[in-house]
Write a structure and sequence with these properties.
Number of helices: 4
Largest sheet: none
Mean pLDDT: 81
Helix content: over 70%
Low-confidence stretches: 1-5
Order of helices and strands: HHHH
Strand content: under 5%
Structural class: mainly alpha
């Protein structure tokens, strides 16, 4: 299924590939469900940013961005706890780590 979305129906010229639109819509729905389940743990901006990443780069970029942003968020969270900048119950915005993951994935060529 991933091969279909990543290799077939690619956008050419002014036409937008169906798989970009469909995969972004699916990601948007899944992230909205996750946001509802976690009672706002993942905000609306995070959901829209992930859908935009999926729309522009497909599922391969989305998976790369998710993995690298989760790693960056984990490292920052542990660092914040060790330096006593944040406490365990404090919230940390996830969007900056998604930007770091997106830029890092593109620069390192993880897509």
């Amino acid at each position: 299924l991933l091969a279909f979305f990543n290799n077939e129906l690619k956008s050419t010229g002014t036409t937008i590939g169906l798989f970009y639109v469909l995969s972004a819509f699916i990601v948007l729905l899944l992230m909205l469900i996750c946001s509802a389940i976690t009672k706002g743990g993942m905000g609306g901006g995070d959901v829209k940013l992930l859908a935009a990443v999926c729309y522009t780069g497909g599922l391969s970029l989305l998976l790369s961005v998710l993995m690298s942003s989760l790693l960056a968020g984990l490292l920052a969270g542990v660092l914040f706890l060790l330096l006593k900048i944040k406490k365990l119950k404090d919230e940390i915005p996830f969007a900056p780590f998604m930007y770091i993951g997106c830029v890092g994935s593109v620069i390192l060529g993880l897509v």
